[in-house]
TrEMBL record:
Catalytic residues as annotated in Swiss-Prot or TrEMBL: K109 (n6-amp-lysine intermediate)
Key word Magnesium present: yes
Keywords in alphabetical order: DNA damage, DNA repair, DNA replication, Ligase, Magnesium, Manganese, Metal-binding, NAD, Zinc
GO MF term list: DNA binding; DNA ligase (NAD+) activity; metal ion binding
Protein name in the entry: DNA ligase
PANTHER family linked: CHROMOSOME TRANSMISSION FIDELITY FACTOR 18, DNA LIGASE
Residues binding NAD(+): D29, S30, E31, Y32, D33, S78, L79, E107, R130, E164, K278, K302
Family membership noted in the UniProt record: Belongs to the NAD-dependent DNA ligase family. LigA subfamily.
EC number(s) reported in the record: 6.5.1.2
Amino acid sequence: MEKRMRELTDLLNQYRQEYYTNDAPSVSDSEYDRLYRELVELEEKYPELIADNSPTQQVGDKVLDGFEKYQHQYQLYSLQDAFSKEELLNFDRRVKNEFPNANYIAELKIDGLSISLHYEKGKLVAGATRGDGQIGENITENLKKIKDIPSTLSQPIDITIRGEAYLPRASFQKINQERQESGQVEFANPRNAAAGTLRQLDTGIVAKRNLATFLYQVASPVTWGSQSQVLEKASDLGFSVNPVRIEADSIETIWEFIETMQEKRDSLAYDIDGIVIKVNDLAMQDELGFTIKAPRWAIAYKFPAEEKEAEILSVDWTVGRTGVVTPTANLTPVQLAGTKVSRATLHNVDYINEKDIRLHDVVIVYKAGDIIPAVLRVVDSKRTHQKPMEIPRLCPSCQSELIHFEDEVALRCINPLCPNLRQRSLEHFASRNAMNIAGMGPSIVEKLFKAKLITDVSDIYRLTLEDLLTLEGIKEKSAQKLINAINNSKANTAEKLLFGLGIRHVGAKVSKQLLEVFGNLHQLIEADEESIAQIDGIGLVVAKSLHSYFERQGAKILLEELTEVGLNLNYLGKIAAKDAALFGTTVVLTGKLEKMTRNEAKEKLEALGAKVTGSVSKKTDLVVAGSDAGSKLTKAESLGIRVEDEDWLLNQ
Ligand code: AMP
Ligand code: ZN
């Protein structure tokens, strides 16, 4: 038992870390909940075995470096969970025991990120994440970019108000589409996208992403009598308040509301993961009080997971641009989170082996945050005599032998001439963060590739208007536009080209760093591994990968061809001049800046060649401190680190 409890604790902590801190969960919420409940049950039976680091003993997420900490004046709480009507009835009994005529209010449980806003004399002065409930992150500048958060209230009062910041589904889909086109990892779900956005150090990104809020709780003392009045007043003050809610005194009525909302859930413009039931009267709330973790006057009913059973009919293996071969299961069709699903990812070979997934198994399918459906696990009781899955040894596209690198979970086709891989590489080359050729999305690439008009990226630059017009469904006007876009891309700064080549380990950021240092592609190609590996944040893996790429005859020819058709190979951005004032130094910003925003200060420091980090350590070379600087400044002083002020930075 002890072993299982330890196992569960470790597993859940890992998932929490992935979920809260990295915004990239690897299991579904329901799988998490299932393990969590198993642990809770065991802990109830064996309380003496509860570990200090058990997830049941913790509230909320972690505070990241990079933002100032924010001490909440009023603690933020978690909510008790319920997964059945039974548990709601128990809650009701406990409440009615003290207040036989208690009345409830039921609200939607918005699946976003808790935020806390603080206003003084009606002006927004600070905003923060929940953090661990006592200390959050100060994200005021980011919150100011959310359009529905008022900067000035309709009355000049002091108030601390709480709620949820979320990303509407439509915005989520748009962001993910853009990320997909530019080859970035997609967000798993709107919640993770919202969390990732609010933790952006660049407020400009927040402004673009269309976050929205629903506020639902006033933390500072109020004179209003009930939660429903709080919501009305909040709305009058100018806050966005969710209009969907009911008041009722029986769990029966609330249960009907739950059932209705569960059905309507998919048609809402935002994600909800349950219904929160609160005692409406604030005086009763006060009397009922709190446990260590959560209020006694509220409970969150969580909707059951969107999971279905389906049979694996067959498995497709497809090759991506990096040569990775990915398995996708074809399933008996099931209805899942509002859509019909007949395909689900099996991730990779290691996943299949680890979960022992076999052809014709009945499996649990879920939607990993509303995007790609995935296979979660096998329903063991429904296994008959399936044999272990056959893992392909040959590439489904070119039939060359597949490689399973030891340090990888993926199977790879390493044949540079593999048709599937080529097509994907061409897509990547044209995508936004690479050469950004507008109008050359995956479907056009596919047509051009199938028509053998392009096989290599240099072919793109030999395309003529006539070539394009031979394709089905292309009109003269869009063909001309595409030709123009192709021509314009020749002048791109060279890191776009480097990234577009799709060299392993050479992403958009690394490409830029490399060209900042080397100035143009030729010099980069001629550089030896050591001088590449020495660049801050690059390392030997990248250096080796570049080297083996450019060593190949094919790569040399390609580069010659690209030069011939007139592509720019020079870096056109700002050069991180080795003689810039702060070249190669690590700088920490702290305290309040008066004349510039944090972001401006950061950009300025970076332009001076510095790397800006969040916390002071022995590696820090310089601290730029504004007014009211706190612990970071003290630490810098104790470590004898150079400290400068805002005016100094302005004069650089
Ligand atoms: P959990 O994170 O599962 O413990 O659930 C508690 C969280 O639900 C709170 O911290 C809030 O961020 C969130 N929540 C979403 N909607 C509401 C709501 N209407 N009332 C209270 N909490 C809500
Ligand atoms: Zn292949």
